[in-house]
Amino acid sequence: MIITMKSFINTSIICVHIVMVGFMVVSPCSSVEAASKSDWISVPPAATAPLGELVTDNPALFDVISGSAHTGTSSSNGGLTTKVAPGESLPIAVKLSNFGGGQKVDVLITYSIFSNTGNKIYSTSDTVAVETTADFIKIAQIPTDASPGTYTAQTSIVYPGQVTPATSQFSFTVERKILGIFQSDVVFYGGLTILVCLVSVSVGHIFVKRRRAVRLTPFDYSSIPHDQRTFYEILSDTIMEMRQRVGDDALLIATKIDGLSVDEKTGRVLLITEHPSKVIATLVAKYEELLGKKVSFSFRRQGKPI
Amino acid sequence: MKKQKTILVVEDEKNLCEAIVDILHLKKYLTLEAKNGQEGVDVALAKHPDLILLDLIMPVMDGMTALRKIRADTWGARVPVVILTNLSATDERLVEDMIMHKPMHYLIKSDWKLHDVVKKIEEILITKIVT
Prior knowledge:
The complex is a heterodimer of chains A (306) and B (131).
Chain A: E1 4-9, E2 14-19, E3 23-28, E4 62-68, E5 82-84, E6 89-98, E7 105-115, E8 120-130, E9 133-141, E10 149-158, E11 166-174, E12 177-178, E13 181-182, H1 183-216, H2 226-246, H3 249-255, E14 260-262, E15 269-272, H4 276-291, E16 297-298
Parallel strand pairs in A: 5-11
Antiparallel strand pairs in A: 1-2, 2-3, 4-6, 6-9, 7-8, 7-10, 10-11, 12-13, 14-15
Chain B: E1 6-10, H1 14-26, E2 30-34, H2 37-47, E3 51-54, H3 63-72, E4 81-85, H4 92-101, E5 105-108, H5 114-130
Helix pairs in contact in B: 2-3, 3-4
């Protein structure tokens, strides 16, 4: 009587077929193409035996798992896709496990790379002697003329006494590089940089505009007596205009004028204690000294038609 | 139809006066010209322009004296005046006169392009229409 049981081990990576005739066949089931039911081994009649008479001399039974060296062999790629440029090397991480007998076996490993149309663009073979497990990285060279697209790296093994094929594969993409950076990264990071720049420029522009608007908004001196108001206004507007032209130095100069009291932060004229015309003339002279240019100024309207 | 505005240019520098007048004509303004302060006062009080562009340092009569005379007139008290000069406002008396007679702008010639001066004139005249 033959009892065949299929169960999954290692979260869908390895599929175990137990044939109750004394040996176990393990084949990979994740990225490895799982053997269909029709591929399950047919046990020769000679190999059958009554329960309890298990064969003790187990033949080698290898499993192969391969993946990109960037993502490893332990699980799926976790959503990551390996990218290589034409002419670059693709490191393939390979793990061989012998679930059968403990003797050293020469395993012929064939590495192939297929395009998404099924064309083989690369193939090479190595032989390694393995007793129980072996982990190594094989460097596959992507041809320089490989066109951009999705490719499949396939690793298959052949060893003496093999009863079931063992193959593992994973996908990767071939993409051209611009100045050492993948095209898609150039587009992504370039776009991101442009976006960040645009946002920064916009925010900066808004900030400057707001700051300028605040600076350009004339102060209201309606609380100042009418006969004095024009002096306050002309001083205030001159300071504001000079602040636009030379920055906060204009404020600094204004604060040092005798007879003039100015808010050091806003430039608002707080008090004129000396003759206003003299204060204005002194301020204009100081600004002309600073700028090396003569200073123009404007008068405010009195809120009625001229 | 909108009435064409008239601007009196009181300027003793012939070349500058012509340049200003040319630009104002391009902007479809009518112009009046005066070569000194006295002429400026006469033309202003006789023709009642919509705006006066006034130099300060001029022969016969300086601009500030001319402005004082114009302001003494009922019409002249309200006419917009733009001073266009090379005289720096660092003299206390000049500042006092200026504040008393209230020009719209005190513009330094070397600091202003003629097109910007005309812009200022346009701003004043537009605001005058609105108000």
